[in-house]
Amino acid sequence: MASSTRRLDQLAASVSSSAAILGEYLESRNLPQPSVNVGGLAGYSGLPPDISTARRSLQESVLELAYLASGPQEYMIRYTTEYVGITALRWIYHFRIFEHVPLDGVVSYKELAKLAGQDERTLKRIVRRAILNRFFIEPRPGYIAHTSSTALLLKDSDVRDMVGLMIEEGFDSSTRYSEAYEKWGPSNSATETAFQLAFQTDLKYFDWLEQRPENLRRFGGMMKAHGTNESYSSENFVKVFNWSLIGEGKVVDIGGGLGHMSIAIAKEFPNIKFVVQDFPDTAKQGAERCSEELRDRISFEGYDFFNPQPVEGADIYMLKAVLHDHPDPDVEKIIRNTVTAMRPGSRILIIDGVLPEPGAMHPVEERAVRSLDLQMGMFFNAGERDPEQWCSVIANSDPRLKVKSINRVPGNVSSGIEVVFEP
Ligand SMILES: C[S@@+](CC[C@H](N)C(=O)[O-])C[C@H]1O[C@@H](n2cnc3c(N)ncnc32)[C@H](O)[C@@H]1O
């Protein structure tokens, strides 16, 4: 049979073949099939590259198919009213509705409203809209149950933190982005952002977080949840650098949060030692959460990277998901503060998004890196950088620094930028 030239048919065929590849792989590994219901596959991790590619093409073909099946006008109506879906999820998060739905059964709206202490009619209109985004299901009229995603809200505090931060701090900031630009233009200041307008503060985002222990804790959970997603996974990021090069060396994980990246490297390279640096409260949390067997190799310390680096002569100074939070002048300060502690041959390893030429990355990953770029714009007037912008900000920081390689593992959103100190 001649292959169809109709785009709808091509996409449908691509969906069908990619879905078969993915489903057969899961079956061959005795893994559960993905399902909207509780009890399906929990998530994707460690997929071989060809299976990962099939999953990505499935996601992208489905999106284009939905676009074509909607037509441009209906597509725009649906797209521009999707904020309602966020509003519904935010209400569910805010009033902790998911906590009162059993994981292995159903609850009536009446009972749920009573348990959550909320108005039944409001609850029903919110949940029935959320159901259309696969948050909860109504298996029989008047009774609701968890889906695999709302079950995660209940079971996984890090995912809950990620959702909360995105739909509160993230969403509110996003609504003020145009106004912030109108007021300050393409500013290089981290105190002239959409975030400051949305939250009516003069503080930089991280200083604001420092004053709010619950928000700071939630930020740590959000980063941890990201670190377990295939595209942002710390385990995949380990592969951006040949760690065996440093033998029994020392890594300083600057702005390392709760230490997820150091932990992932430490598990694979048992001879490397780590110092994870962050704000004192975050460092304290990291130390408390660090497992017993890694404590002799990973230490946590409070350090503000706008001061000179106290740990001298380490092999690697790692900055993962740190520099994209800062406009160029601040990045230059952070790098200069690091150089003061480096010895010849020491490296800075930056792990961050590197903006691709349009179309050079798979669209699923390109969307993720461009979304991150805009998010960093909303919170910090910072963002991801393209290779040229990275090289220029590094050279402006200190001409003795040489960019040796930029390496991305396919499937990852971020790349490793290896910079050597050659005085
Ligand atoms: C986006 S998070 C990345 C955390 C970690 N590197 C990771 O990838 O999971 C940025 C981190 O930088 C820390 N940070 C922000 N400003 C800092 C400063 N002035 N000194 C030290 N750490 C800071 C934040 O507390 C946060 O943990």
TrEMBL record:
Domain O-methyltransferase C-terminal: 230-394
Assigned keywords, A-Z: Methyltransferase, S-adenosyl-L-methionine, Transferase
Spans through the membrane: none
Domain of life: Eukaryota
Biological process annotations from GO: methylation
SUPFAM superfamilies with a match to the protein in the record: S-adenosyl-L-methionine-dependent methyltransferases, Winged helix' DNA-binding domain
GO molecular function: O-methyltransferase activity
Record-linked PANTHER family: O-METHYLTRANSFERASE ASQN-RELATED, PUTATIVE (AFU_ORTHOLOGUE AFUA_4G14580)-RELATED
Protein name as it appears in the record: S-adenosyl-L-methionine-dependent methyltransferase
